[in-house]
Amino acid sequence: MPEGVIIKALSGFYYVRTDSETVECRARGRFRLDGTSPLVGDRVIISLDAQGRGRVDKVLERKNFFIRPAVANIDLLVAVASEVEPVTDPFLIDRVTTTAEHNGCEVLICVNKSDATTSHRLRDIYAATPYMLIETSAVTGEGIECLAQYIKGKVCAFSGNSGVGKSSILNALEPELRLKTGEVSEKLGRGKHTTRHVEIFPVAGGYCADTPGFASFDVEQMPPIPKDELQFAFPEFEPYIGSCRFDDCAHIKEPDCAVREALANGSISVSRYESYCRLYEISAQYKDWAQK
Ligand SMILES: Nc1nc2c(ncn2[C@@H]2O[C@H](COP(=O)(O)OP(=O)(O)OP(=O)(O)O)[C@@H](O)[C@H]2O)c(=O)[nH]1
Ligand SMILES: [Mg+2]
Ligand SMILES: [Zn+2]
To answer: Is pTM, for the whole model, over 0.85?
Structure first.
């Protein structure tokens, strides 16, 4: 039975790269019953029927997986953002960083379109976090070489709202990819969802998945991080956890909270703390809802 990696998912077909070739496969029906659909990045066992048509028989154990973007076995999630239209809400970045943190995946923040703005708002927000942030331009090439260094030797996935330039950055890294890119709607200030499927490409000595951009109204499809664990998905909170008056402090409105003291003296950014509160609220509600 050949083993391979799913490098592309499109219209009910999976494209599996084995040692010798890329095989077009249909998924076995029972995957949908199990609730485990194969994802791009999955290591799988495939077989060929009498007509030579491929079939995915088994998904091998995953290191991690994500629903938005729909990928598995990722070493590095690149959260691509922009400060010009379509402007990225930092909450979107924080959803990506916390999900990655919770699932054992490294994160890099890439603020693209640096040629079109002098703002460094996102750089300032993330300065007080341990996350590496690079400013790039797919147009001038700024930061692209630096990004390439992070990708080398890793399996990466680009995620971010539609129109921030995920496909454009991949083209800047590897011009022969010639991925389709789209305009940003002037009227709506949003991208046009040009990339429609997930596909992994060999890039800069590693592998990168281009993915469809988030819609602004997109909702998270993964179960939220349990509320008591959420604090650990914000690594800059770590030095303060355990120093609050209450052992079970949620860092929301309790007195003598070390996290909120760090917020007050500027060691934790307001934007990050606001994301924490929003995500905490979502987690708290999800639990109530799940118990009913
Ligand atoms: N000024 C400037 N424009 C850029 C840059 N990168 C991308 N663009 C433009 O932004 C638009 C959207 O780029 P795409 O690469 O299609 O964006 P995407 O993130 O792949 O979008 P989806 O596939 O819809 O998720 C295109 O018009 C690009 O030319 C950049 O660094 N600077
Ligand atoms: Mg794209
Ligand atoms: Zn606290």
So the answer is: yes
